[in-house]
Design goal:
The chain is mainly alpha-helical. It has 17 helices and two strands. The protein has a two-stranded parallel sheet. Helix 9 packs across helix 16. The longest helix is centred in the middle third of the chain and has 36 residues.
Length: 420
C-alpha cells in the first residue's frame, strides 16, 4: 500500500468508528465528541501528509496506524462506557464550593490585573507580542516575564487547578442561588477561566485556548444533564457565543503566528494550508514515521516523571541514537508513552488502566456519582482529548499532584445541598 493509501486507510478507521458510535448514540454526547476530534484530525492528516513540513525518518506504513488505532480504542472504552445522559447527582458538599470559588477569584485578581494592563498597553504592538512568543520557546523561564514574582506564583497555582476551575464553571449553575456569596464565588471562577484566554492572547499561545476550549466543552457535555430546561437554554446560547469568539480568536492568532513563522523567524516558505494542517494533522503521521522507528527515553512519561520528581526519585534516561525531532512536533499520547517505554509496555499500559477504569464505570450509581470518580474520569478524558496532539500532562503536570488533594478534601464530607 502506498503512503497516501495508508493515511487514507487510517482516516477511514476513525471515521468509521465515529459514524458507528454517532448512529448508536443518536447524536452528540461526550463519547461521540472525542471520536469526532480524532476523526477530524485523521482526515486533516490526509491533506497534510503530502506537504509535511518536517518530513519523517521512515516511510508511512500500515502497521503503526493499526497499533495506534488499537491503543486509542482501548483508551476510549471507559469514556464511551460512561452514560452522561443518566447522570443525576454528583456527591459533593456544595457548601465548600462557595469559599473555593471565592479563593480562586482572590488568587486570580493580581495576575489578571497585571496581565490586563500589559495587554492593553502592548496589544497593538504586534512585534512585542511576537517577541514574547519567541522568548517563550528560547527560554521557558521568560514565559511570564510580564508578571511580578508574586503574580507568577499565583499563576502557577491556577495552572494546577484548571480542571477544577472548568468543573466549577459548568457545575455551579446547578446550585445557583441569589446570595451575594454565590455571585462572588462564580465571578471568581469565571476570572480564573478568563485568565487562560488572556494568557494565550499575550503569549500568542493559541493552542492553549484550543486545548481548554475542547476540554471545557467536554465537561459541559457531561454535566449538561444536571441542568433544568431553562438552564440548558441559557447555557446553549452562551456556548454558541463562546464558540464564535473562540473561532475569531483563533483566526487572529493564527494569522499573527503564520506571518511570524514565515517571515520573522526566517523559516522556509510554508503555505498557509500546510501550516494550519500541521497542528491538526501531523501527530499520527509523526507517530507512524518517527516514533516507532526510534529508540526511547525511559522515564519520559509525564505522569511517572511528575511523581518521581516530587518524591526526588531519579529516572534513568537513554538518548536517541537516531531521530529528527522538533520540540513543537506532536506524536499523540500513545507516541509519548512509546517514547517512554517502548511499544510492548505501552500496549500493556493501555490494556490495564483503561480496563480498570471501565470496570469502575460499569459499577457506578448514576443517581449519586462520587466527586472523586468524576474528577478522575474527566482528568483521564483530558488525555484522550488532548492526546491527538500530545500527552495532556506535559503542560499541567502539577494537576496530578494538586487535584488529588482537592478530591480528598471535598470527599471528606457528605454531600449537602447549598441552601440559599
Amino acid at each position: 500500500m502506498t503512503e497516501e493509501g495508508c493515511v487514507i486507510f487510517n482516516a477511514c478507521l476513525y471515521m468509521a468508528l465515529f459514524c458507528f458510535w454517532w448512529n448508536k448514540q443518536k447524536g452528540l454526547n461526550s463519547g461521540t465528541y472525542i471520536l469526532l476530534i480524532w476523526s477530524v484530525c485523521s482526515l486533516v492528516g490526509v491533506f497534510y501528509e503530502p506537504v509535511n513540513i518536517y518530513g519523517h525518518m521512515r516511510k508511512i506504513t500500515v502497521w503503526p496506524y493499526l497499533y495506534l488505532f488499537v491503543c486509542n480504542c482501548l483508551m476510549f472504552i471507559p469514556i464511551l462506557a460512561f452514560k452522561a445522559e443518566r447522570l443525576r447527582h454528583i456527591s459533593i458538599n456544595n457548601r465548600l464550593l462557595i469559599p473555593l470559588g471565592i479563593v480562586l477569584g482572590i488568587i486570580s485578581i493580581p495576575p489578571f490585573v497585571e496581565s490586563s494592563i500589559y495587554y492593553y498597553i502592548n496589544h497593538s504592538n504586534t512585534q512585542m507580542m511576537l517577541d514574547a512568543f519567541n522568548d517563550r520557546y528560547a527560554d521557558t523561564s521568560t514565559t511570564y516575564s510580564y508578571l511580578s514574582t508574586f503574580s507568577k506564583r499565583l499563576t502557577y497555582i491556577l495552572h494546577s487547578v484548571r480542571t477544577l476551575s472548568l468543573f466549577l464553571l459548568f457545575y455551579m449553575p446547578v446550585i445557583y442561588n441569589k446570595k451575594k456569596s454565590f455571585k462572588f464565588a462564580y465571578i471568581g471562577v469565571c476570572l480564573s477561566v478568563v485568565l487562560i484566554v488572556l494568557e494565550s492572547l499575550i503569549l500568542l499561545a493559541r493552542f492553549q485556548v484550543v486545548i481548554y476550549g475542547l476540554y471545557g466543552f467536554f465537561i459541559y457535555l457531561i454535566l449538561r444533564n444536571l441542568y433544568n430546561e431553562k438552564l440548558r437554554t441559557v447555557a446553549s446560547r452562551y456556548m454558541k457565543i463562546l464558540a464564535i469568539a473562540f473561532v475569531s480568536l483563533q483566526i487572529v492568532q493564527t494569522a499573527s503566528r503564520y506571518f511570524n513563522y514565515t517571515e520573522n523567524l526566517g523559516q522556509q516558505e510554508v503555505g498557509a494550508i500546510a501550516y494550519l494542517g500541521q497542528y491538526l494533522g501531523e501527530s499520527m503521521g509523526n507517530f507512524n514515521g518517527n516514533i516507532v522507528h526510534s529508540d526511547y527515553y525511559f522515564g519520559a512519561d509525564p505522569i511517572l516523571k511528575t511523581y518521581a520528581d516530587f518524591l526526588h526519585i531519579p529516572l534513568e534516561k537513554t538518548v536517541y541514537r537516531e531521530g529528527r525531532f522538533h520540540t513543537n512536533q506532536f506524536f499523540t499520547v500513545v507516541g509519548e508513552f512509546w517514547r517512554a517505554y517502548g511499544g510492548v509496555a505501552t500496549l500493556v499500559i493501555f490494556l490495564i488502566f483503561p480496563y480498570w477504569l471501565y470496570v469502575v464505570v460499569k459499577r457506578i450509581n448514576y443517581k449519586k456519582v462520587s466527586f472523586a470518580f468524576f474528577i478522575l474520569l474527566i482528568m483521564y478524558s483530558k488525555m484522550a482529548i488532548v492526546g491527538i496532539f500530545y500527552h495532556a500532562y506535559f503542560v499541567d503536570a502539577n494537576e496530578l499532584l494538586v487535584m488529588p488533594l482537592f478530591v480528598i478534601l471535598l470527599t471528606l464530607y457528605k454531600k449537602k445541598k447549598y441552601v440559599g
